[in-house]
Amino acid sequence: MEDPAPASRAAALPAEGRCGYFVEKKRRFCRMVAAAGRRFCGEHAGAAEEENARKRILCPLDPKHTVYEDQLAKHLKKCNSREKPKPDFFIQDINAGLKDEMEIPEQLVPFSSLSEEQLENLIKKLRKASEGLNSTLEDHIMSHPALNDALNDPKNGDCAIKHLKQQVDGKHRKNNSVFERLQIDIQHLCLNRIPVLQEGRLPVVGIGKHLCGVATDLALRCLVETYAASFEERNEEPLAKRVKNDKTEKESNIPSEEGNEKNIQEMWTPVAGVVIALCCHHRCDWRHYVGKEYFKALGLGAVDFYYFQRMSSWATCGMRRTSLEASDITTKRKDDQNYDNEEHDDGGDRLTDGSTDGMPGILTAEEKKNIGHLCKLLIDQGRLQYLQQKGFNPALQYYTDPSVSLENVLLTAIPAHLSLQEATHK
């Protein structure tokens, strides 16, 4: 039985109030709103007879949209792509790290051009460097009470529940909470210049939901170097600590219930904790990576890092199902994959069953997956050591099931002295 022929252009009409321009490629009318009394939207106004005298050109700030040529000067003043004044908390490359032009060769051999011998040597290096690392992480899967009603709603199927778990942001906000959104690249963000933090000199907790690749390193440096260092440089006791110290002094005359119990002085830190959902290690960058010293101590350098970050994509890309499973994909699984890709690009070097992207077929799909996980673990280990050197007690753990997200590793860190106090009180 033949498929029904698509509706002809003559038989279809644009929706009321919508543009009358027929988009040949999509076989439908444009769905943009047309101005009152106009037949076409702004993008397709040139197609209208009454608009033929006016010419539309590409916006020089963003060629993704057009503008009337005779209104260009006016448009440039309000275009969303125009360069805006930099806020006080913008400092160019403050969290970028040091750039060593000599560390990375200008011409790196493309990953797909590596020989079998070169690939084997890389894998040997990886396995040697990762010897002794704990690849078995603790499961610490939690669920916020704000989600309970939605998760228990019988109307929500598996896909909806999975999506709810991925999009939990904002569902647990308190009515009296204050939120402020800063539109700035983390690379240039100076936290101690943000008014609310500057005025109150408050401790911060860094929370990141899937800070892809390099963004994790930029965020760590922003927190534990830029913000924390600002208090050390000024030798300033933060307001939160002074308030607590005043209270402690007033209570110091109250006798302890146990005479022999020693009071442990509570130390304050500008950064009270870090919680980051890790992902997209193939988007890391050697210049910004905080674990350079860790790699160098293992005899590894920028070139090794480049290939390891590319291989890290083997852990999640191109091996989600075997060829047998792929022949029986259901609509549900397609929806699942769409949710997986909402926040992450596949990137890296995509591998399909038993084959590589231009690479010799010397590894099975399972071996490639394990190697990808080793690459991720090694990169994350450098981050752990960096945090330890900065006075934190860091850890990696699984925060959700792989069926919800293949990128399911959480990086947490709290100041080491707080960990010590907690252990002392137990």
Automatic annotation (TrEMBL):
It comes from the Eukaryota. Its EC number is 2.1.1.225. InterPro entries: Methyltransferase_TRM13 (IPR007871), Trm13 (IPR039044), TRM13/UPF0224_CHHC_Znf_dom (IPR022776), Znf_CCCH-type_TRM13 (IPR021721). Belongs to the methyltransferase TRM13 family. It catalyses: adenosine(4) in tRNA(His) + S-adenosyl-L-methionine = 2'-O-methyladenosine(4) in tRNA(His) + S-adenosyl-L-homocysteine + H(+); cytidine(4) in tRNA(Gly)(GCC) + S-adenosyl-L-methionine = 2'-O-methylcytidine(4) in tRNA(Gly)(GCC) + S-adenosyl-L-homocysteine + H(+); cytidine(4) in tRNA(Pro) + S-adenosyl-L-methionine = 2'-O-methylcytidine(4) in tRNA(Pro) + S-adenosyl-L-homocysteine + H(+). Residues 240-262, 327-355 are annotated as: Disordered. tRNA methylase which 2'-O-methylates cytidine(4) in tRNA(Pro) and tRNA(Gly)(GCC), and adenosine(4) in tRNA(His). PANTHER family: TRNA:M(4)X MODIFICATION ENZYME TRM13 HOMOLOG. Residues 56-83 form the CHHC U11-48K-type domain. Residues 240-252 have a biased composition (Basic and acidic residues). This is tRNA:m(4)X modification enzyme TRM13. Pfam families: TRM13 (PF05206), zf-TRM13_CCCH (PF11722), zf-U11-48K (PF05253). Keywords: Metal-binding, Methyltransferase, S-adenosyl-L-methionine, Transferase, tRNA processing, Zinc, Zinc-finger. It is an enzyme of class 2 (transferase). The gene is Trmt13.
